[in-house]
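User:
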Amino acid sequence: MARNASLSEPTYFDFSIVICTYNGAQRLPALFEHLLACWQFVPPDRPRLRWEILVVDNNSSDDTAALVQQVQVQWPQDCPLRYCFEVQQGASYARELGVREARAALIGFLDDDNLPAPDWVDAAHRFAQDYPQAGAFGSQIHGDFEVEPPPELKALLPFLAIVERGQDPLRYDSPKRVLPPSAGLVVRRQAWLGSMPETCLLRGRKPGSMVTGEDTEALTYLLRSGWEIWYNPAMQLWHRIPHWRLERSYLIPFFQGIGLSRYVTRMQALSPWLRPLALLAYALNDLRKALGILLCYGFGLRHSLVAQCELTLSLASLRSPLHFWRLGASPF
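Assistant: Predicted structure:
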């Protein structure tokens, strides 16, 4: 059942930026600098847009709240900077609070490690006007790496929310295609409220769990409600990636979390009558991939981080149905 979509559409602003953050006190200052540049950008052919910023603190234990208070003192008064606290851990809880609190029909989600281009808000607003059937659309995301990733890791970069799909708008016309990440995603509040269920199965990473996929689950609901999902290359931002996110200690649990989420993201995209057959087909394919990697690399597997990540992804995808059945949750 979808959420109550009868809530009146907010009209206070043209655009709301929702920043979901967890212990982001060290990362947020760079984002605020870029947002100030966005605010100072005035389109040459139309008036300045009215927009607001909402920081959703997802149960941080650092100085995030104090930092936002300091920034608020000197922030432009005609661009409200608000703060909310979400005690339930998980990115989807933070985004849900952001949607409820937003006061514009268009909501742009930014992570605390995103750096938007000065015209990011304007490019998002223009796209929404040109594509009224787009319930959500993602950004062109470039990597801002602390250390240059070695060539052998290039195949893994799309999993780290690097999205470079060319310079033409692209419609994600099927749930089977990779959907855009939540970083730099813009949604219509009306589409979100009319499509999302009361409770989602995936809630996002949190301490002790790397299970992710909550953004894919949310976009699947929008697709099922008849909204289009697009890639807008004019919305450019940079994703800051520290050195440790390219190391094995992070990547192996990260890919395990992606794999464990796949039971939900795969099944939600299908009609109920297809799900039992698809479950078997996916299991056989995951097993085939895992065996193929083991046969291909053999004892050399320990020397290839990419192969280890791919094997972890396949095995976790194979285990995903059991993982959710043990939790008592099933999309069937």
